[in-house]
Amino acid sequence: MAQKGYVMSDELTNKLRKIYDILFSVLLIVTGIALAAACIQIYRSGDRPFSPESISQHFHANSLLIYGTVIGIFFSFLLDIVLPRKKNAPKAVIHEDVRLARQLRKGAPTGSYAEHANKEHKLRRRYGLLTVLVFILLMIYPAVYFSDLAHFTVVSLNRDVTVSLAVVLIPGIIGLGLCLLCSQLWSKSYLRELSVCKEAIKSGSVSTDGQKPRRGLPVGILRVIISIVAIVFIVAGIFNGGASDVLLKAIAICTECIGLG
Amino acid sequence: MTKRTIRQWLSDHRPTKRRIIQLYAALLTNANLKGFGSGQIYQGNAKYLCAPGLNCYSCPAASASCPLGALQNALAGTNTKLPYYVFGILMLYGLLFGRWICGFLCPFGLIQDLLHKIPSPKVKKNRFTRIASYFKYLLLVSMVIILPLLYSFRDFPLPAFCKYICPSGTLLGAGGLLSNEANTDLFGMLGPLFTWKFVILVVFIVASVFIYRSFCRFFCPLGAIYGLFNKISFLGMKLDKPKCVDCGLCVGQCKMDIHHVGDHECISCGSCVNICPTGAISYKGPKILLAPNETGTAVKTKNMTVDPCDFPGTPLPRKTKVARSIVAIAMAMILGGSLVYYNVIDKDPPPAEVGGEIGNLCPDFDLTLYGQDGTIKPSDTKGKVTVVNFWYIYCSACVKELQTEFPLLKQEYGDDIEVLVVHSNQEYFQDIPQYIADNFQDSWGYTHCRDVENEAFFKSVGGTSAWPVTVILDQDGTIIYKVIGSTTYDEMKTVIDAHLPA
Hints:
The complex is a heterodimer. Chain A has 9 helices and 2 strands. By secondary structure, chain A is mainly α. Chain A folds into 3 domains: 10-82; 96-213; 215-261, no CATH class. In chain A, strands 1-2 form a two-stranded antiparallel sheet. Chain B is an alpha+beta fold. Chain B folds into 3 domains: 17-229, no CATH class; 235-342, no CATH class; 367-499, Glutaredoxin. Chain B is built from 21 helices and 9 strands. Chain B has helices at 3-12, 17-29, 34-38, 67-76, 84-97, 100-104, 107-116, 127-132, 135-152, 160-164, 167-178, 192-210, 214-218, 221-227, 249-253, 318-345, 396-404, 407-413, 432-439, 456-460, 489-499; strands at 236-239, 281-284, 367-369, 375-376, 385-391, 417-423, 446-450, 469-473, 479-484. A 7-stranded mixed sheet of chain B has the order 4-3-7-6-5-8-9, covered by helices on one side. Chain B has a two-stranded antiparallel ribbon with strand order 1-2. Classes of the chains: A mainly alpha, B alpha+beta. At the A-B interface, helix 1, helix 3, helix 4, helix 8 and helix 9 of A face helix 1, helix 4, helix 5, helix 9 and helix 10 of B.
């Protein structure tokens, strides 16, 4: 049904919008690639290759794409006025099981359901402990390697240093993979526990006896502690020269931070 | 296209209060507007303070320091002193604002928000973006904390995140400086690092059009730090759990990867406030400044306005109007005062008389020697080819070339050349002689000295505020080579060989 103030039907509007979206997206991505490629080309063209002239030259070479993108952006806004996108109502994204888990904070399954739920709970605890233990064991070698500064004789992250760092981190990466695997097993166990709990709720075998209310974060105490620590740190930093270091660094151009040097 | 359509579009897209606050914060953080005209960065005492958001201090307009850069540099100096000051600042900002800073005060967040406004297909959040949002914690630990700490024990300053990733530095710093013709000399410093960072910047700019806050969600270590304080910060979002029915509409409406309102991913944009059917969501903060609908009053609406700050709900109470007016006037005065201070009152030092161009005699200054009594002047080295290098202890490019390129000079030429290594006059709490003793070998044959007051020697050869600068003088003291930025042994050798007798 056509909206008031527009002459096209919703279906045609959506089709036109889709076509334009694809074209504009492609144009934007191609322009980005072209600019990045131009920069790489300048860099590879010789010694100290960057200059206002070389940049201007490559800008002119890509001017069609750049101006096309600017016009495309302007046209996108125009299209947004003439053929507005249909705004969808937000959808609830909380999984049914997560909602159920929150409700179960107020009650727990009883009888055989409790036995099954506890079994899954213990299984998850074992997964967690085993994974943490294996991860720590795998990180011993990288930790020992990193603590020996003799491995870092070059003062820059060149290719050799980066490659040896990456190789040393392989056990850590394996450990992370194990953590991911554990999280998958964990979530499967959690879903099994939840399905047991659903059955318990259906059959009415849920009790609130013995349920302790969850304690929230002691926000007030934490705020007081952190504010005191923060102020003490700031004062200590002023006296030990930390504040002056911030100034010293900030008043000089950080050539590396902006890609120079 | 009808007038009503345009008016309707403009009404839907008028600047919200959050946008106005973002623009205000961006202007306040970059109040040194004259820096764009002069091509110089602000060098005044206001840079003792850190801005709360990500704003590179190498931007000519930057009026304060970047907290992330300050943190990395502070960690890079851990071998000499513990970084209490920066830790304290970050804790204070986190406690006061949490990730409200990301939603309201960060200039780079504003840039991403504006880019995302470009009408285009948008990538919706999903399970993978949620997992990817943890990547910024990995970056925080590895590039912001571990790498600078590791290299601090090598006495090598390495702000790894700033150097290899941060797009704000490339856009605001490099873009701001290189766009001024006074900084044409800096083009010689562009190389592989700039190419890498430019590609990263282009990727983030294009990604921000399609993906909401692509940098903030997946890469920003500063957001990662502030997110840790979200639950206890004074400003932000809060969820009234007894009222919450777990409908999930708030999570559905939110463009960030939150699990629930106010968690470590929440940037307090407030788009969830009006969508909540039970009014369980509200802003944390001074109640006197909040409208009734912002304090959690349930308001049913057909119009899915995403920003409640302007939602035409219950009329504002009089005391809220008065309080908001007072705050607005105070903020306007602060901004006005800052603009006047930075651009009118705080004058740049007069430009040094630059005589140090190629072909001229090198300006002569009495430079205090390190490690021995007395002074030295460039004219004292007449009769020999002299290499003068200006360096700065926080400059890793300077330290790198002094440790890798310059030692080869004495090896090659022995007593035929002099190598004069001039450190910036600014020392403050740094023990430069100790640093030199620990990091530079005597066999390299350097004569270490300190520049005169106000960096007069450095400025006389055309130095601005970027180190290193290398100047080579022939046997008569005439400048035969000058480069701003890193140089190489091969380059210097070519020049020196041409002026030494065969």
